[in-house]
Design goal:
Pfam families: ABC_tran (PF00005). The protein is an alpha/beta fold. It has 10 helices and 14 strands. It folds into 2 domains: about 220 residues, 3-Layer(aba) Sandwich (Rossmann fold), CATH 3.40.50.300; about 100 residues, Alpha-Beta Plaits. Helix content is about 35%, strand content about 25%. It has a 6-stranded mixed sheet with strand order 6-7-8-3-9-10, sandwiched between helices. Helix 4 crosses helix 5 and helix 5 runs parallel beside helix 6. The longest helix is centred in the middle third of the chain and has 18 residues. Bound molecules: adenosine-5'-triphosphate. The site of adenosine-5'-triphosphate has 11 residues, from strand 2 and helix 1.
Length: about 325
């Protein structure tokens, strides 16, 4: 459904700013009917890629096909197949749900009975039943987001692009928004591409793409990504993380990745495992440990591992020196 081929985007520099490569030679294929989450650290190029995919920015090089249509050569045909939910609200909060939806539908020539049929269909994927007459600014954050979703479903897109649509929602609202997307994919075969920083959202999707520094670092199913870390992960909360990183390296040959205030060891040296290492750390470095846990690898651990590796490869440093 989406074929991104050798895509590069360079923001031209100004008098005081050098040019900045936001997307670098990125190739990514997303087959029809997949729910894919695109994630990456701040500044990794997700928004730039998103803007290119929805036709708001023109890449410096490369090609994007949407449902076989060349986005650059024939943007109208490619865009006709997609619905977009932006991070910032794109509905008028002073108007009612119905007013917002009918104005949007009219832009696409949908009025009268045709509009009502599409409206019923779009609302069927949301929890907006009975709220049509309510002004958007009186709805909860979760329902307001669903208005954005209903709006783009009015035109029956085959592809949904969503930029961090669940940011700021409480867990229950997030779950119901994601469940609508999952149903659209399962029952309508809709292709969904969504950016997100929330890894719990990605555990059940079809595939996860991880970007950093404009490059694609990984794209695979959540199961396959988790399988990249084939041991349990040791997570240490330390009052002196830098000291502990250094001691672990010098004394035990263990590479710990620093992530915020935490240290993570996701590749204990060959002769040991995470539990044995936990016991050793508690025995030898007790004053440097505030809390310590062994857990099964989750997607967030893979993300931290893959992005630390990429930073290390770029700088020639070890992963612990390139902490997020
Ligand atoms: N208009 C612009 N002009 C120059 N550089 C830009 C512009 N927009 C983004 N960049 C740079 O391009 C790189 C990628 O930014 P982008 O916003 O695409 O990343 P992101 O992954 O979406 O980040 P975030 O998660 O913080 O939204 C960054 O280095 C950013 O500073």
């Amino acid at each position: 459904m989406i074929r991104i081929e050798a895509l590069t985007h360079v923001y031209p520099g100004g008098r005081r700013q050098p040019p900045r490569t936001a997307v670098a030679d990125l190739t990514l294929h997303i087959p029809e009917g997949r729910f894919t989450i695109l994630s990456g650290p701040n500044g990794s190029g997700k928004s730039t890629l998103f803007r290119i995919l929805c036709g708001l920015a023109r890449p410096s090089r490369g090609r994007v096909l949407v449902a076989g249509r060349d986005l650059l050569a024939d943007p109208a045909a490619a865009r006709a197949r997609m619905g977009v939910v932006f991070q910032s609200p794109a509905v008028d909060k002073h108007l009612s749900v119905q007013e917002n939806l009918s104005i949007h539908a009219a832009l696409y020539g949908l009025t009268g009975a045709a509009f009502r049929a599409r409206l019923d269909e779009a609302l069927g994927w949301t929890d907006l039943d009975g709220r049509l007459g309510d002004r958007v600014d009186t709805l909860s954050g979760g329902l307001a987001r669903q208005v954005e979703l209903a709006k783009c479903l009015l035109t029956r897109p085959r592809l949904l692009l969503l930029d961090e649509p669940t940011t700021g929602l409480d867990p229950a609202s997030r779950r119901s928004f994601l469940s609508a997307l999952t149903r659209l994919r399962r029952e309508r075969g809709m292709t969904v591409l969504m950016t997100s920083h929330i890894f719990s959202e990605a555990e059940d999707v079809d595939s996860v793409a991880i970007m950093a520094n404009g490059r694609l670092l990984a794209h695979d199913t959540p199961q396959a990504l988790r399988a990249r870390l084939n041991t349990d992960v040791l997570v240490i909360d330390s009052p002196e993380p830098d000291t502990l990183v250094e001691r672990l390296r010098a004394d035990l040959g263990v590479t710990a990745i620093r992530h915020g205030d935490e240290l993570r060891v996701d590749e204990p040296p060959g002769h040991t495992d995470a539990v044995a290492l936990l016991e050793r750390v508690l025995k030898d470095y007790r004053p440097l440990v505030r809390g310590i846990t062994v857990k099964q690898p989750a997607l967030e651990d893979v993300f931290i591992h893959v992005t630390a590796e990429a930073r290390a490869a770029r700088s020639g440093a070890t992963p612990q020196e390139t902490a997020a």
